[in-house]
Design brief:
CATH architecture of one domain: Beta Barrel
Number of strands: 37
Shape: globular
Largest sheet: 5 strands, antiparallel
CATH class of one domain: Mainly Beta
CATH topology of one domain: Thrombin, subunit H
Radius of gyration: 22 Å
């Protein structure tokens, strides 16, 4: 009998370990596709029954329009308190938090003291809020399953261990590196699970935190200039990528990368002139190519930028580029980071322009031989700029869907073949939303957060979560008056729960209470 009980327990634990999921950063993965692939709890039939599970109030100093960042989820973490699902986020007051996602209890909080020769900027403007601006991130992907939650490296990005080299060690020492493999600070650990979170404080230092305890895993690394406005971190192959935007703090707009494998890790920088587009900053393809869009300025390889999409190596050397033909758009700088996705064995990139068009590019040759030829460009569809990041998923029939947030709506597109060539066809446009955040997609549904932000004289509203049918755009759920104020961050979905933050330092968790007995006691 004892043996039978142990066997049953082992089977139960194995099943739990297999099916939990991560949300490692903005967009869910380095490709920024926003697809929670393993999330099946929410359906067209039950979406209308979504309800509040809990709210968590964080102690944090609001800086301008910023409060708490977009959440990150580590679906399976071994902590000093046992096995936990960790909900992590950062705060504008130079804080990082980890909350027990099952029980709505704080596990740890870390405050980063400002440490830079350059004085700290304490005033805020709508464009440059100051303080900590970038969401946290960890390695992995929401679209793969490996252990509990599909942690580990991004598809195609990991080096993988050599024979006889322990997991988590560097696969092949490069020139000038030690012959003994160095530990990978942002690789995997804990039974193949991601073991660290990365975050950048307002003084420009990169912190690598033990996700179990919040302890620093290494001395904080000077990464970007102090007081910069920093995009969401992107983590791939033990490297971190970010963009600095809007010239905040008097600093140049640039892309930054750092490979954390060498003990003497040093960042590399690529100054862009114009502010890299979107909250995601960069998107990374399966072979490690880094994509970013630059609205204006000039580069040595691509020449004058005009909504130019750059394809760069991991050390930020320009490999290829796409610049749309014709005069620059009349709108303000495009506000969306490129999207990378694979369909029928071919890797694509989607980017938006200031003229309201979407461009579909070949990831291997973004602009063709002349650097100005897209695979397909839509007509000018968006009256307002595309915002944040795009999202994408593939239906059971192999149909690929693309979603774009504009200033006042979400637009759904489908990738189709016409005359043997790929095109993006608009399928629907949502009802009006106030400054929707980048959407997240799961199980054929689109989760859209109307942030309530106002960039005009229109008063700010409240954040409202909408759930839409991914194929028709039909509204299935609205959170209505659930929140009291607006949001400046995006969504995360993992393990039957939806998360977002609001400007009053609240984290909201939504799902189905009947499936959360630890919260109800039933």
């Amino acid at each position: 009998m004892k043996k039978l009980l142990l066997t049953s327990l082992a089977i139960s634990v194995a099943a739990w370990v297999t099916w939990a999921a991560d949300w490692p950063g903005v967009g869910g993965n380095p490709q920024r596709d926003g697809w929670a692939k393993s999330e099946k709890a929410f359906t067209k039939e039950n979406a209308g029954k979504i309800e509040l599970l809990y709210k968590y109030k964080a102690e944090n100093q609001v800086r301008g329009v910023n409060a708490l960042t977009s959440p990150v989820v580590n679906g399976f973490m071994i902590t000093h308190l046992g096995f936990k699902e960790m909900l992590a986020f950062a705060g504008s007051g130079d804080n990082a938090y980890s909350v027990d996602a099952d029980l709505n209890r704080i596990v740890w909080k870390v405050h980063f003291d400002y440490s830079a020769v350059k004085p700290q900027v304490t005033n805020s403007t709508p464009i440059c809020p100051g303080g900590l601006t970038s969401s946290m991130a960890m390695p992995g992907s929401s679209t793969v399953t490996a252990g509990r939650g599909g942690g580990g490296r991004a598809p195609g990005a990991g080096r993988g261990p050599l024979p006889g080299v322990p997991p988590g060690a560097n696969a092949a020492p490069g020139p000038g590196r030690a012959t003994i493999p160095a530990p990978q600070l942002l690789s995997t650990g804990n039974f193949g699970r991601a073991a660290n979170f990365a975050v950048i404080s307002s003084d420009g230092r990169l912190h690598v935190l033990n996700s179990s305890t919040g302890a620093e895993r290494t001395t904080p690394i000077p990464f970007v200039p102090p007081n910069s406005k920093v995009s969401a971190l992107n983590v791939a192959n033990n490297s971190v990528f970010v963009a600095t935007q809007d010239g905040c703090g008097g600093n140049p707009n640039a892309l930054y990368a750092i490979d954390l494998t060498p003990e003497s890790a040093k960042p590399v920088v690529f100054e862009t002139g114009g502010s890299p587009s979107g909250s995601g900053g960069t998107a990374i393809s399966a072979d490690g190519t880094v994509f970013a869009q630059i609205p204006d300025g000039k580069g040595e390889v691509a020449g004058p930028y005009n909504d130019t999409v750059l394809a760069l190596s991991p050390d930020l050397k320009v490999k290829d580029y796409f610049t749309p033909s014709g005069p620059p758009g009349t709108g303000s700088a495009p506000g969306a980071t490129p999207l990378v996705f694979t369909s029928n064995g071919r890797e694509y990139v989607v980017a938006g322009g200031r003229d309201g068009r979407l461009h579909l590019l070949d990831a291997k040759s973004p602009g063709g031989a002349d650097h100005h030829t897209a695979l397909f460009s839509t007509e000018a569809i968006a009256a307002n700029n595309y915002q944040g990041t795009f999202a994408s998923w593939e239906d059971e029939g192999g149909g690929r869907w693309i979603y774009a947030s504009t200033g006042n709506a979400v637009i759904g597109f489908q990738l189709e073949m016409q005359g043997g060539k790929p095109v993006l066809t608009q399928k629907w446009r949502s009802e009006e939303m106030q400054a929707p955040a980048p959407v997240v997609t799961a199980n054929g549904l689109v989760f859209a957060l109307s942030t309530g932000q106002s960039f005009t004289k229109k008063p700010a509203g409240r954040a409202i979560l909408h759930v839409l049918d991914g194929e028709s755009g039909k509204g299935l759920y609205s959170s209505g008056n659930l929140t009291s104020t607006w949001s400046s961050a995006g969504l995360a979905i993992a393990n039957r729960r939806i998360y977002f933050t609001t400007h009053d330092n609240l984290v909201y968790s939504l799902g189905f209470l009947a499936e959360q007995p630890q919260l109800t006691g039933k």
